[in-house]
Amino acid sequence: MSGGLREGLVLSGVYAYRVSCSHFGKNQVEYLFILYGYFLYCDGTMTEHDSNKLAEIAQKVRRDVIRMQRLGTGVASAMSVVDILVCLYFEVLSPSASGEKERDHFLLSKGHGVAALYATLAARGIIDSSLLDHFLEDGSPLTGHPARGSVPGIEVSTGSLGHGLPIAVGLAWAAKLAGRTSRVFVLHGDGELQEGSVWEGAALASRLGLDNLVAMVDVNGLQGYGRVDELTPLDRFADKWRSFGWETIEIDGHDHARIVDTLKACPFVAGKPSVILARTVKGKGVKAMEDQLGWHYFSVPADRIEPFLEELS
User: Fold this and answer.
1) CA-to-CA distance for 159 and 146, rounded, in angstroms?
2) I need a surface site. Which of 2, 40, 55, 182 has the fewest CB within 10 A?
3) Residue 267, domain member (yes or no)
4) pLDDT tens profile 97-108
5) Does residue 12 form part of some domain?
C-alpha cells in the first residue's frame, strides 16, 4: 500500500471514528492518536564535548528566530528550546528528513515554538535556509505551527496541545513490533502537561515497555496566561512521571554537554520509557524577553530586531 493511500485510509478512519463515537468522551479519541502514529509508520556520552561549536550553532539559530519573528507570535517559546533542538539534531538524531525506515523520529508537540525547529533544520542542512526569510508569509511552507509534509523534518502536524506524546507512543510501538531500532523523541512544554492526553499516552508507553521513546519537557515555568506553578506545581513533575512508570532525569536545558550526555544515555533503564525535564528560561538569550510572559504573544518589532541581534552576537 502506498504511503499516501495508507494515510488517506487512516485519516478517513479518524473522521468516521469521531463521528460514530463522539458521545463516548475523550479517552477513545486519544487512543486514536496512538493508533494513527502506529498505522501511519508501521510499514513505511559525547566522545568530545564540543560545547563551543554547539553554542555557536545555538546562537545562530536564535538570531534566525529573531529575524523570522517579525511576523507572528511564539518567539520566547522558541528561544527556550533552541539548545535542546541543536543538541538533538547535531549530536543525537539520525536525521528525520531521511527516508530510511531505521531513522529516528522527532515530534515537536509544543507547536507554537516551531520557529526554533525550522531554524535548526536549516542550520543542519535539512531545509534551505532561504525559506526562513518567508516564515508566516502567504504561500510559505513555514507555517506558524508544524504541518506534516510542509518541509522535510516535519513528521506530524501539531499545535493542538497534548497530542505529541500519544502519536509518539504509536510510532515507538510500531518500531518495536517491526523489530526496528528507530527511536522516537517528543518535546513538550511544561504547561502542556496539564492536558490529560499526555498522561493517557504516558500510561500506555509504560505498559508497553517502550524504551525507544524519549519525552523531553521544556520546563520554562511560563504558559499562555501565567506561571505554570499557579496551576501545576513544578516541583511535583518528576514524581508524577515516575508514578507513571517512566525513568526520569532533571537537567539544565541550556547546558549543551549535559543535554547531549543525557540524550545519549537513553534509555536510562531497559524496558522503560525515558523522560528528560529540562529546566530552561523562556526567551533565553535576550534579556528583555527572558522570563517575561508578554513575549509569549509579541512579535519582534522592526526597531528591536537589530538591538536583539547585537545582543546575540
Assistant:
1) 7
2) 2
3) yes
4) 456 678 899 999
5) no
How many Cβ atoms are within 10 Å of 142's Cβ, its own excluded? 25
pTM confidence score:
0.82
Helices (H), the chain: 3-21, 26-41, 51-68, 75-87, 114-123, 164-178, 196-208, 237-243, 256-264, 302-311
Residues 36, 170 contacting (CB under 8 angstroms): yes
Kindly state whether residue 58 falls inside one of the protein's structural domains.
Answer: yes
Q: How confident is the model at residue 76 (pLDDT cuts 50, 70, 90)?
A: confident
Domain residues for 267?
A: 46-311
Does residue 201 contact residue 230 with C-beta atoms inside 8 Å? no
DSSP state of 30: H
The 10s digit of each residue's pLDDT in 109-156 is 998 899 999 999 999 999 999 999 999 899 999 988 889 989 999 999
Domain count, the chain: 1
What's the one-letter identity of residue 168? Answer: A
Q: What is the CATH number of the domain that holds 119?
A: 3.40.50.970
Three cell numbers, residue 98:
531521511
Banded pLDDT at 42 (limits 50, 70, 90): very low
C-alpha cell at position 119: 531554524
- 24-60 CB burial, b ≥16 within 10 A, e <16: eeeeebbbbbbbbbbbbbbeeebeeebbeebeebbeb
CA angle 111, 113, 118 (to 5 degrees): 95
